Amino acid sequence: MKSNTFSARLLVVLVVLGLSIVYLLPIYVMVVTSVKSAEEINTGNYLVPSTEPQFNNYIEVLFGSKRFRSQMFPRMTNSAIISLSVTALAIFFGGLGGYYLSRSRSGLSRFLFILVGIGLYLPYQVVIIPLSILMSRTGLGQSHAGLIFSYLILNVPLATVLMGTFFLGVPRELEEAAEVDGASRVQIFFRVVAPISLPAYASVAIIVFTGVWNEFFLALTLSSRDTQTVQVVMAEAAGTTLVLYNLQMAAALIAVIVPLIFFLVLGRYFIRGILAGALKG
After folding, report:
1. Would you say 244 and 68 are in contact if contact means Cβ atoms under 8 Å apart?
2. Domain range holding 89?
3. pTM over 0.70
């Protein structure tokens, strides 16, 4: 019996170790390549660390150079403005909408739930043409406000469904007690329900922020040179005739640092909120 247990544990350890190597190897190659010179890359030894790290590659990517024409720093600012704005507005309106759908039993709420579901599962490529026309006619095209509004259309349904699923598990007794004390429905939501739903809000914020930060198609279609995001610059970094892998890897690492920090700040609430929504839904 002990032999079988030891074999099972050893198998689990080996599987986890193998998967970890498979997952971390590309990241290791990115980090090592990002500080190499062009001559070192041409040797083809991608797993071998650089003998003379070129940290200037990151400066070139952030602020531009003759080898890397695009500047990532202004694009990171654009991505941060858009992603943070969309995240804050999406979880606010998604929380209100999810609370209404989770508490109302009227025919209107069921109809709205169907509309939210359609908006959630509808591929956004389908609406890109009417969305572009709407942005153009409202004067929001190629602006930060236009991109924020466009991403809100896509992410508010997602936030509504996720928050509504969590609210279904919030004890009704807490709301009834607050109602007996004379609290209104709005006061109950903001003073009772919202504070105990912070793990769900953090989970939804991570999902929305990461999705908006990494989105490429809308950013390419609806942005101008002044409102381009990080992902658009990443696509331009591929080059046409000369491929500078060291600068590409440096740009990729810079692009992931902001969502990584965002996840590290709110990550402790992420699993708790996801599991709570799954179990209580």
Report:
1. yes
2. 72-280
3. yes
